[in-house]
Amino acid sequence: FLQWHLHRYGRSYGDKRDISKRPDAVKNQAYAAQHGERDMVYCFKYKPTGKKLGPPSVRLPPTLKTLLACNDGPFRGLQPPAKKAMAENMYKRFVTEVSGTHVG
Question: pTM of the predicted model, to two decimals?
């Protein structure tokens, strides 16, 4: 990142956090574990082919009912209230991630 000719330009998160929270524009070091000397710059070129895209391939997360029926992994040994809370939290996370609104 520091070798890039625009490395002094204010960095951004690149997601909805940019609306209310920006990395330190002076030091460019406000990322938790992403220092400038370790950061990467990716460049893309838009080159449309004219071909029509098919529908996105999205694998839906397990249903809340499926998570509540699970007795292994992180659910092993949990009492019903704790199991229900964990299942609801996991389901909420899965749904927000598959919708693309999981960051921030």
Answer: 0.49
